[in-house]
């Protein structure tokens, strides 16, 4: 009985998989915030390099991974697929649980899978500096690491609440050479405006995005986004391509794929290659997104055009949204506190390609703790949502005797999230169900 299913370095994927040409209909285009016409490549050029814009709108099924990117990927890829025998035993379940572990990356999450190619394509176009936002600090540290690989400057707006609560994520960004500001900051017009209204604002991802986008205006500077966009989902498919090979090595195919969704990139990266196999009739997994009940974009959001940020600087994207003014309660899964969802995933959800459920955070931490005690890996708060769904399914299997194969991505470790575990262990952690009135209010300002 294998515990770790490892791929040889020679099996590192050589191409990313683009799911768009395999869908029955393409997703609706992003719209210009001023004209409300579909945005063209020229509109995006001030923000992103040409190669990434081409990937954003690509109709090609496969895109070659540049050798310079694969060379950096080899620092930690291929990542292990773990059969969670000890968790299964603790649950007394006949289900077989497989976990694709992305916590072995240089910053402890899946984010470098896209940060590295984003930095590479910018550097190749002669860009000198990247700006971005970060919530909990995972994306910021990934981009800081990636910029260090290609000698780019990196400037990061970090949501004030996390800046104060997670000093070690900030240290990691600085260690990799980035410059970090607490957001809202007085350095940008969007930040200054928020501070004028509320000098003690804890910030939000939407505000930090406005600041980073605003700061990307000089010619040698571009902006980078860590989730949501098509090219980000594309880069993350290395997760699923490897997992597909690894499961084949032990003659397994998943019956259920679950993933946590903030902007949707680790979930998409895991399941897109399996969906390709499903569409070709080679397997038939059920696919399910798991989101926090405090920020339930799929299960309670509206499918509508909305801004990606608070100030309304980004293109309008058709997506499941809670409204760009929505500020979620301060749950510990910082990476899942985003008002919107990837437009590509939102489109696929409307097509019925996968399902979704929302979980309260205490159930998630309970699963995280069980996973840590059985498998010896402390999960980040975000993937505990997917683990909680896997555990619930495995418990159902224990009752029915069904021996399902469950696959999930453990998209990050929680070594820098001990304050969250402290709160859970002390019994102080609260759930934050979202009152309908707050949701209605946030949705009332949709453009
Ligand atoms: C950023 C992050 C997420 C949320 O982003 P997705 O694009 O939905 O994957 C989830 N887990 C971890 C560990 C993260 O760093």
Uncertain regions spanning at least 5 consecutive residues: none
Look up the CATH topology of the domain at 4-8 and 66-108 and 231-443: Rossmann fold
The first-level CATH class name of the domain at 4-8 and 66-108 and 231-443? Alpha Beta
**Helix and strand composition category:** alpha/beta
Give the % helix.
25-40%
Q: Overall pLDDT, averaged? A: 95
Rg calc: 20 Å
Chemical compounds bound to the protein: pyridoxal-5'-phosphate
User: Which word captures the global form?
Assistant: globular
Which architecture of the domain at 4-8 and 66-108 and 231-443 would the CATH scheme give at its second level? 3-Layer(aba) Sandwich
Q: What is the number of helical segments per DSSP (H or I, 4+ residues)?
A: 19
Strand order of the largest sheet: 1-4-5-15-10-11-14
Distance between the termini: 55 Å
User: Which percent band covers the strand fraction?
Assistant: 15-25%
Largest sheet: 7 strands, mixed
Number of strands: 15
Give the topology:
Blueprint: E1 4-5, E2 15-17, H1 41-44, H2 50-56, E3 62-64, H3 67-73, E4 81-83, H4 85-91, E5 96-101, H5 112-124, E6 129-134, H6 138-149, E7 153-159, H7 160-165, H8 167-175, E8 179-183, H9 189-197, H10 205-214, E9 221-223, H11 230-235, H12 237-249, E10 256-260, H13 265-279, E11 286-292, H14 297-300, E12 302-307, E13 316-321, H15 343-350, E14 355-359, H16 361-375, H17 384-400, E15 405-410, H18 418-425, H19 436-443
Parallel strand pairs: 5-15, 6-7, 6-9, 7-8, 10-11, 10-15, 11-14
Antiparallel strand pairs: 1-4, 2-3, 4-5, 12-13
Helix pairs in contact: 3-5, 4-16, 5-6, 6-8, 9-10, 12-13, 16-17
The structure holds pyridoxal-5'-phosphate.
Pyridoxal-5'-phosphate is lined by residues 109, 111, 138-139, 227, 260-266, 335-336, 380, 382-383, 411-412.
């Amino acid at each position: 009985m294998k515990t770790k299913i490892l791929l040889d370095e020679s099996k590192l994927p050589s191409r990313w998989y683009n799911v768009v040409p395999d869908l029955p209909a393409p997703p609706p285009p992003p719209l210009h915030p001023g004209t409300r016409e579909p945005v063209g490549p020229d509109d995006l050029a001030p923000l992103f390099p040409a190669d990434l814009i081409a990937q954003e709108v690509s109709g090609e099924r496969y895109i070659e991974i540049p050798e310079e990117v694969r060379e950096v990927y080899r620092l930690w890829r291929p990542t292990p697929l773990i059969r969670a025998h000890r968790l299964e035993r603790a649950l007394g379940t006949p289900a077989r649980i497989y976990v694709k572990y992305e916590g072995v990356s240089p910053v402890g999450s899946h984010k470098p899978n896209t940060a590295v190619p984003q930095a590479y394509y910018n550097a190749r176009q002669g860009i000198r500096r990247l700006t971005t936002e970060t919530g909990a600090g995972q994306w910021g540290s990934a981009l800081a690491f990636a910029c260090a690989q290609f000698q780019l400057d990196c400037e990061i707006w970090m949501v004030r609440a996390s800046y104060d609560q997670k000093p070690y994520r900030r240290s990691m960004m600085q260690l990799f050479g980035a410059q970090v500001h607490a957001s809202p900051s007085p350095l940008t017009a969007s930040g200054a405006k928020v501070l004028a209204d509320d000098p003690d604002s804890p910030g939000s991802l939407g505000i930090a995005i406005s600041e980073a986008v605003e700061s990307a205006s000089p010619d040698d500077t571009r902006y980078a986004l860590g989730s949501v966009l098509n090219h980000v989902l594309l880069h993350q498919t290395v997760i699923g391509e490897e997992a597909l090979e690894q499961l084949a090595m032990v003659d397994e195919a998943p019956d259920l794929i679950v993933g946590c969704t903030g902007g949707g990139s680790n979930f998409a990266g895991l399941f897109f290659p399996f969906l390709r196999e499903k569409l070709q009739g080679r397997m038939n997994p059920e696919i399910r997104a798991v989101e926090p009940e405090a920020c339930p974009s799929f299960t309670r959001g509206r499918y509508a055009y909305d801004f990606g940020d608070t100030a309304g600087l980004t293109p309008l994207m058709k997506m499941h949204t809670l409204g760009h003014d929505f500020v979620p309660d301060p749950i510990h899964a910082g990476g899942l506190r985003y008002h919107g969802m990837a437009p590509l995933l939102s489109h696929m959800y409307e097509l019925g390609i996968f399902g979704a459920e929302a979980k309260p955070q205490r159930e998630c931490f309970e699963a995280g703790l069980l996973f840590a005690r059985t498998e010896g890996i402390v999960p980040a708060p975000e993937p505990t949502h997917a683990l909680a769904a896997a555990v619930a399914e495995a418990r159902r299997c224990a009752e029915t005797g069904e021996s399902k194969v469950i696959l999930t991505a453990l998209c990050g470790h929680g070594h820098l999230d001990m304050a969250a575990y402290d709160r859970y262990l002390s019994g102080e952690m609260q759930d934050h169900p979202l009152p309908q009135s707050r949701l209605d209010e946030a949705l009332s300002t949709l453009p």
